[in-house]
Amino acid sequence: MLQIQTFDARAGGNVIYKALAHPLAAEAIGRLHDCLVGPVAIYDPDGIAEALLALYPMPIDVLFVHDVALVGQQRAGLTARPLTDLSASAPGTVLIAAFDAGRIAARIAHLLPKDATVLTLDEARLPEAMLSVRGRYLDKLNFATNFAFFRDADGLSTRLVSANYWSAYGAASVRLWLRLFGGDGAVLATWEQVVPTGPGGFSIDSRQVRDRFGLTPFTGQLFIHALGVAGHDVVKYALDTYATNNGVSLSCTHDANAWPSDRFAGLPAPCPDERVVLWLQNSHAVPIPAGAVMLDRMGAEAPVALDRPVGPFATVALDVGDFLPAVHWPAQIEIRTGRHVVRPRYEVTRGERIRIAHVNVERDNIRPDPAIATLPEQLGRGYLLPFPVLPRARFRSLVQPTPMAAEQRNLPLRLDVFDTEGRRVHERFLGCLPRDHGLALDFDDIAVDEGHAELVYDFRDGGEADGWMHALFRYEDRRSGHIAESSFGAHIFNTVMTFKDEPQSYSGAPPGLSTRLFLKLGDARRRSFAVLIYPASASWHPRSSTALQLHDGAGRMIAETALSIPCSGSTTVRPHEAFDADLLTAAGENGYVLVRDQTCRLFGYHGLMDDVGGFSLDHMFGF
Fold it and tell me: Same domain for 529 and 465?
């Protein structure tokens, strides 16, 4: 496993990790590496030497620290020595493992050997023009970055869509620094794209990128760095995968999460007539060694390793059937990646149709919390995981609970089902499911024509809970056979009483009782839709006060219409029905609908639907 800290549950993404792992930093550290003259001493004032050397192995001979409590400890395979020994060590190079290191170098100048070359990580700083906050290099807003699975090959293309939500926090001029890596990790293109001033929408289409740079077919990854941002250091987007020749394949996936994880879960094993491919994308400039990536049936603890390395920033396709040939749906697959990759995509092929979805981060820092079993009545049903039940006449809906934390030994769950008007029409105790369970519940066995369902904790047979409840949702068009699937986790919804960081808010402290959801528009061939759900852990307003706000590509709101959803109810929104055709034309290809509500927090799933039975579905993002 890479010895890097990539994410902190309280602070979010680790800024030093992002600063070290940035592709431009990787190039600069490579040049710094070439300047090292041995013996090499490293001074580690901020405790980042281990991450630095994990991402960029270097010939370091001795490591120095100034905290006496750390002297004698092992860091990156070296025994930490007291900084006072530096002058007697006679190094040829002293590398100060810190950014903004001028003051640090001045403080230890009297300890530096006369003939030693002094280098710092300031040699690996991004250009000043790329910094959103120029006075403090390690400000999180300087590293608003993310990866996207990006492809234009084999009859499939990708289109990334989002909006300039940073403008709401005061960002005046936002642009994107973009770098496209091919399947072998080589840089195919680097460019910048200006984002509209104000809350305008934007897109990046693989077909246009390929034409612009004269590229051959590629399947790789797009690194996205938002510059000039304010208020938010996460790059959020929706990514459509569509058939280039207007064929039948169509999928939508959420943003990738900006930090690597040790494990991911929620990868479905293939049905007998399916092929499941995991797209593994190295997020770093250091190769993934053979044996570092492993696939395992969830709960089996018998992982099978990838027996070959993966190059820097490379993309490889791993056929799940090659690793676990005897494992089939409804079994689940756990992916162990050793913090080398951000959230991967997977691709399922059945007949002529291909669908793509994402796995989720399996947390290693969450433990069972006994308090969840005894939440006070003011929090009602507590944690809810809402998801749509699509119209029964056309769609088959399934749900599969997915363990999503390394310490989850069981899942004590109940299913509550609601019609569109918010009436609870069915309740089913699913049991205290073991980690290796094979349950996939088919809603054909439940008498509801359309609405939504919620997974909730139920401890009647014991069990443990940690709040990190997840599930996979699968939908099949009965006419065409097309399938779409999504996955997400639970929250506490719509109560002013709080528990830890719930109900969550997109900005500010909990409780999160407002809604700002992004809904793309689609085009003449593929029209967008969203299923909006009004989940409530406890009693809340009888109906929502929701506005659908149509924005054009420049961010101007050009129309608005009201919507009222019953508490615990749901509805389907179709922009082409909510707004006149001339308004949608005025909105343009980068226009979007903002779902806004200041009285409650809605949850939603969005996608596209065409006339040949193709559709996509994934959870919406907010800001």
Answer: yes
What count of other Cβ atoms lies within 10 Å of the Cβ of residue 252? 27
Domain end among 209, 224, 254: 254
Region 107-129: what's the mean pLDDT?
Answer: 93
Task: Give 485-497 pLDDT, tens digit per residue.
Answer: 999 999 999 999 9
d(CA 613, CA 479): 7
Whole-number Å distance between alpha carbons of 335 and 361: 10
Is this structure's pTM higher than 0.90? yes
Domain tally for the chain?
4
Domain boundary among 204, 231, 254: 254
Residue 134 placed within a domain: no
Q: Residue 100 — pLDDT band, cuts 50, 70, 90?
A: very high
Cα–Cα separations (whole angstroms), residue 531 to 388, 395, 551, 574, 617: 7, 14, 19, 9, 9
Within a domain: 373: no
Residue 32's pLDDT is what? 94
How much is the pLDDT for 7? 59
Cβ atoms 562, 546 nearer than 8 A: yes
Q: How are strands ordered across the β-sheet holding 62-65?
A: 74-75, 78-82, 62-65, 40-43, 93-96, 117-120
* pLDDT in the model for residue 3: 85
The overall longest dimension of the chain from CA atoms, in Å, is 82
Q: Are residues 394 and 497 in the same domain?
A: yes
pLDDT reported for residue 11: 44
pLDDT at 415 over 60: yes
- Residue range(s) defining the domain that contains residue 96: 7-124
Segment (H or E) for 593: strand 592-597
Half-sphere exposure of 102 (CA within 13 A, CB side): 2
Work out the pLDDT band at 205, boundaries 50, 70, 90. very high
Q: Which of 528, 525, 496 is nearest to 509 (CA)?
A: 496
Does the pLDDT at position 8 exceed 80? no
Residues 499 and 402 in one domain: yes
* Cis amide bond preceding 113, omega within 30: no
Report the distance separating Cα 593 and Cα 587, nearest Å. 9
Residue 43: give its domain's CATH number: 3.40.50
**Is it true that the peptide bond before 511 is cis, omega within 30 degrees of 0?**
yes
